[in-house]
Each structure stands twice: as structure tokens, then as C-alpha cells.
């Protein structure tokens, strides 16, 4: 595993660099192959998705792009907390051209626990290969996706697992750590001095992001700005 740091003065510059790298990955995918990406939710990466949407709308690339959230809250897409809803809003222009297909981490089940096996089967069927890239954020507690400190990072051999936010107790579905690691690239986006310090010490502590750093079989590109 190699970690490469990319440092930027502000998030606008970070978004431009990452979206350009992302577009390059898509454009280098052979014409009849599928590019697939697991994407972090929340407000931080939204500008990256919006910029990629602009870039895709200006190209003639015809690859199908498959997307899945790294984790999702057990709410409707119309809820402002929904990551899948966020992707639909940020990637609206390229969606009109049917450039991408979103693989959902939800179904009509009442809880993620009930849905886990069915969602894992969906992921294995529709995303059987390694991701082209995984884009992750990180919390100040060292969590990635909805893999929180002290909680499981996988459930049996399934591609996903039910999770609960330790403070809000909100129910979520998350890709498992092995599924996140089954990728050709990892892009880790962090901002601020506090998160940089957490990352610098992550391998010495029992944190999910430390597990990611230890177990990754590909280069991890860290995109950071103050």
C-alpha cells in the first residue's frame, strides 16, 4: 500500500483536480466496459460531483458508469440526508444522457438489518468486479463510510452490513470494508488540520481508516486542503 498526499489551497482547487482525475479514469475505460465507483455522501464531496457532472456533459464518452454509495441512511431519496438523493441532484445533467446507473443500498424493508442479504446479493450481481475507484471521506473519529470505531466492519461474507450512527442512533447500510478494498484506486478526501492529524496517527490506533490504510492493496490518494 502506498499513500500519496495531494495538498490544495482550498476545496475548489481540490474538487477540480479530483474531478479531472475521475474523468480521466472514465475516459481510459475501454468503450464497451463499465466504469464503477463507490462514492461518499454528505455535503463535503458535493462540489466534486457537480464538477464531474459538468465535465461529463461536455464529453462524448459513452461508457456506462455504475455508481453506489459507500453508505446510505435508511431514508427516502427525497430526504436531504439521503446520499443517493444527493447523487441524483449533483449528477442531474449527465443522468439525462443515461451516462450512469445508480445501484441502490436500499429496498422497501423496514430496517437495514432485514435488507442486508438482499442488498448484498444485488451488489454481487450488478457490481461483481473491482471498483474503478472508491471515493471516501473520513470523520474526526476516524470512521469511513458507516464503519465506526468499535463496530464491525463486515458481516459474514456479505458485501454490506447494517450500521448505527453512535451518536444519532440513525440506521444505515454500509459497504463492508472488504468490498471497499476491492477496488483499483482509493481517493480519500479530508479537510482541516484535525482530520489530517487523525489520519497521520490512524495506523497506530484501532480506527476504521487505519484498517483501510493497513489492508489496501492499491494506492490511496489523499486529497487534503486546510
Task: Give a short overview.
By secondary structure, the chain is of the alpha/beta class. The protein has helices at 11-28, 46-57, 83-90, 92-96, 112-126, 177-181, 193-200, 208-215; strands spanning 3-7, 35-39, 65-69, 71-73, 100-103, 133-136, 160-164, 171-175, 186-191, 220-225.
How would you characterize the overall build of this protein?
The protein is of the alpha/beta class and 226 residues long. The chain has one domain: Rossmann fold (3-Layer(aba) Sandwich). Helix content is 35%, strand content 21%. The protein contains 8 helices and 10 strands. A 7-stranded parallel β-sheet has the order 1-10-9-6-2-3-5, sandwiched between helices. Strand 2, helix 2 and strand 3 form a beta-alpha-beta unit. Helix 1 packs across helix 2. The longest helix has 18 residues. The two termini are 25 Å apart.
What would the keywords be for this entry?
226 residues, alpha/beta, Rossmann fold, three-stranded antiparallel beta sheet, 8 helices, 35% helix, globular
List the helices and strands and how they pair.
Layout: E1 3-7, H1 11-28, E2 35-39, H2 46-57, E3 65-69, E4 71-73, H3 83-90, H4 92-96, E5 100-103, H5 112-126, E6 133-136, E7 160-164, E8 171-175, H6 177-181, E9 186-191, H7 193-200, H8 208-215, E10 220-225
Parallel strand pairs: 1-10, 2-3, 2-6, 3-5, 6-9, 9-10
Antiparallel strand pairs: 4-8, 7-8
Helix pairs in contact: 1-2
Amino acid at each position: 500500500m502506498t499513500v500519496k498526499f495531494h495538498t490544495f489551497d482550498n476545496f475548489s482547487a481540490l474538487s477540480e483536480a479530483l474531478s479531472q482525475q475521475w474523468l480521466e479514469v472514465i475516459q481510459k475505460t475501454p468503450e464497451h466496459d463499465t466504469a464503477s465507483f463507490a462514492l461518499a455522501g454528505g455535503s463535503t464531496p458535493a462540489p466534486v460531483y457537480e464538477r464531474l457532472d459538468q465535465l461529463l456533459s461536455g464529453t462524448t464518452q459513452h461508457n456506462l458508469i455504475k455508481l453506489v454509495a459507500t453508505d446510505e441512511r435508511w431514508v427516502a431519496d427525497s430526504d436531504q440526508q439521503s446520499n443517493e438523493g444527493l447523487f441524483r441532484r449533483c449528477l442531474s445533467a449527465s443522468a439525462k444522457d443515461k451516462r450512469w446507473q445508480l445501484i441502490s443500498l436500499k429496498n422497501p424493508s423496514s430496517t437495514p438489518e432485514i435488507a442486508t442479504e438482499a442488498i448484498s446479493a444485488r451488489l454481487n450481481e450488478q457490481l461483481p468486479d473491482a471498483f474503478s475507484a472508491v471515493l471516501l471521506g473520513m470523520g474526526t473519529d476516524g470512521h469511513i463510510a458507516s464503519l465506526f470505531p468499535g463496530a464491525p466492519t463486515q458481516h459474514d461474507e456479505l458485501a454490506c452490513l447494517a450500521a448505527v450512527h453512535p451518536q444519532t442512533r440513525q440506521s444505515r447500510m454500509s459497504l463492508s470494508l472488504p468490498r471497499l478494498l476491492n477496488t483499483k484506486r482509493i481517493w480519500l478526501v479530508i479537510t482541516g488540520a484535525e482530520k489530517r492529524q487523525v489520519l497521520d496517527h490512524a495506523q497506530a490506533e484501532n480506527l476504521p481508516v487505519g484498517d483501510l490504510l493497513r489492508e489496501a492493496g492499491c494506492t490511496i490518494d489523499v486529497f487534503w486542503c486546510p
